[in-house]
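Q: I'm writing up a methods section and want to include an example of the input and output format. Could you take the sequence below and give the corresponding predicted structure tokens, formatted cleanly so I can copy it straight into the document?
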Amino acid sequence: MAEGLAIADVAARLRMQLRVVEALEAENWDRLGAPVFIRGQLRSYLRLLKLPESLADGVSDAHARQPVLTPRTYTPPMQRMLDKAMGRAVYVVITALIAVPVWVATRSHVDNTRPVETASLGLDGNLQSAVEDVRPARPTPVTASLGALPKRAPASQAVAESGAQNSGALVLRFSGDSWIEVIGPDGAQVEQALVQAGQERRFEAGTVSRVKLGNATAVEVSSGGDVQDLSRFQRANVARFTVSSDGALAPAAE
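A: Here is the clean output for your methods example:
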């Protein structure tokens, strides 16, 4: 060095790094970065050596290494692809969380609009239909054309026999399985049972005060020989009615 200074002394006086002084001494501009930085360091070096500072202007931009600018927000391609995939997955999950409850609520509403089948008390609808399907059909009566027809009884005699047979009696005929409960005038339970199709129950006048029938559409009720209409006593295929001492039927309070 022209002034007899060591590189370490120059670095100490100029407060520069040792590698910077070495690069200036060797004119290795590629190690120093931007041209502005190189010329500034070089002027300080020239002043120490008592040389014209204008010599620093001879360093052109072409000799200096241009710095590579790296954005602070740089993201690797793999990271960007992963971020996009995660964003799509989150979108799908959020869409499912919104759409599934709406679909379930709509499906429940549609299902609730279907007609509701009301099962009778204590009976399964499938069991009842199965019993009716397997029950053999009643044979059709055939009247022979040969032979004398039986004589008809006089009308007065038929009315008298019918009155004697059905005077106030309550008769229940079952075309399907049904559950019944019969209460007497004293409040005691006369009968409570599951009656099968094809059976019949008969109660004399004055022995019944209250009746409850499950699967009422499969029961024919007659009082004093007259078939009664159970629709006015029926609710949800269960009929409830009272029976007076003369056989008259009336709705029963639940």
